[in-house]
């Protein structure tokens, strides 16, 4: 009777499975454990994590380390992926044409057109002049209203106002004749004076009509066709706002620009093809299909894509200790996304969403460090360490312990950095590692929502959303209400919150719940559904998905509350049974490789006894 | 009690702090009713005001400003702050009624 531990060193977690193997090869599984992986997978930095997980698994099985006869580790070819993202369009607002802006409470309603005048200069305006009053910081709302009323009484046509503080309604309420007032303009001192400008405020519950329409702006400023074409991005940026300001300066133009993002060259075993990054993700992936299997990818030097791949290569070479020149990119996943960019010349730090392509690239590195890792482990634990079989084979063996599975079975291992798939038909296991997994989803959520907070993006990825509707209840994203005994924190009030295990976490953006949900789901779809189909297609016998009977979804991302369902839905049409794995009937989608290592070892033992 | 309004209880209805609070509420479009009473600290005044308000939101003003929601327990105001933050607290009292995130 031998006590063994199977250990799977993954990209983000290290898992162990303790079992007893009887001479005939009969296995009794005792326990499992999981810790975060220390260091980069496949390097000696993993040792502390492995030691920790082995100790924990043994202690929960109630067995001391000295009874251990062997530790089995997977032959982890470190598969590392890197991410880069680059904007391919840009809206440039030159110098002084300013646009914006959407405060919570603008004042008045309607459209005002006139020349911009500082509040202090109102008394100097001639009667009959059409002006937009610019009220800087430090002016009290009563004084502002009184000043405007006085000018109007003299015959000056004040048609609108731009205000620094949050008091548009207060000013509008005190005016003899109502005008549109836009407030919370943080950079009010930058509004150019003596320029034609327009201020528009919509009635509550409506959006602006004139300044969000290119021809509306053209009418207001008397623009010709060419000028209208230039101003079109401004109109587009203002769609859906309740209020807006447009200032027209002689040199002020807005243009949409496509940044030359460069060419990506995909080198296959037989062919080599180039594709422009700004052709978009679909085109890049189509080109990749034509050159598969990929042996390397390069980007044009001095372009965005060149920089992206250089960054990936540098990271990989640093992590693995290989020379930059020796790093070969084995797979890429391109995804269309958006990146919020600050609009140059905006009034209150507005952002515009620019098109971007995110690229996940994956590198397979040398196996060298694995022996060294085993050696170090042997020292640390004082037990024999055996490097087990190929990871994919082990994962399949482990997956088959899921109740209800049968051959031919395919596994989809959804990790943090890569998506792996393997198919076991008649004895032969075919496997593939693809770039793009959980980390890319987090990055897409982070950038598309403009959070700049990876931790929060990670929470949004993992947990359902709700909106705090009162101090005592939230409305979940599916419409159900949930009540709390303790009042909710004030920061959460009326906000979208993530219901994580650690509690409620407000999402500090203006995005509504539906928008956040849609970004979350589309990021998962763009990465996991696309990769699942891509992976299965490459391992399926004859490339035919219908030849696969069962798909078992494994890995950390298989614990996600919607990814496995999305994948199951995507392959349902092909008559495939697809679900989240339940390794050994108890471990869920975790522990497949660790369990497979034990099972494979037991098989060897039984063959030895027979032989 | 008349129409829907946030209730404010204070010791001095002529205090300049009230102008700021009133401005905050007016900006958000929420009505306010002011009651002058003879004694109590901001906590006590605020809780009593919230209980009186048909909108469940009350403000107490004494040496500080205290914003209460009637559904919250007596010792647990939603917000408190110094007199210098009166305008913002007025905004936030109104936002609790309107149901938009506080500033």
UniProtKB/TrEMBL annotation, chain A:
- Give the Gene3D superfamilies listed for this entry: 3.30.420.40, 3.90.470.30, Nucleic acid-binding proteins, Swiveling domain of dehydratase reactivase alpha subunit
Domain (DD-reactivating factor swiveling): residue spans on this chain: 93-254
Q: Which InterPro entries match?
A: ATPase_NBD (IPR043129), DDR_dom (IPR030994), DDR_swiveling (IPR040916), DDRA (IPR009191), DDRA_swiveling_dom_sf (IPR028975), NA-bd_OB-fold (IPR012340)
Domain Diol dehydratase reactivase ATPase-like, chain residue ranges per copy: 275-600
Matching entries from SUPFAM superfamilies are given as: Actin-like ATPase domain, Swiveling domain of dehydratase reactivase alpha subunit
Q: What NCBIfam families does this protein's entry cite? A: reactive_PduG (TIGR04491)
Kindly provide the name given to this protein in its UniProt entry. Diol/glycerol dehydratase reactivating factor large subunit
- Provide the species name: Amycolatopsis methanolica 239
Automatic annotation (TrEMBL), chain B:
Pfam families (UniProt xref)? Dehydratase_MU
SUPFAM superfamilies on file: B12-dependent dehydatase associated subunit
Descriptive protein name? Diol dehydratase-reactivating factor small subunit domain protein
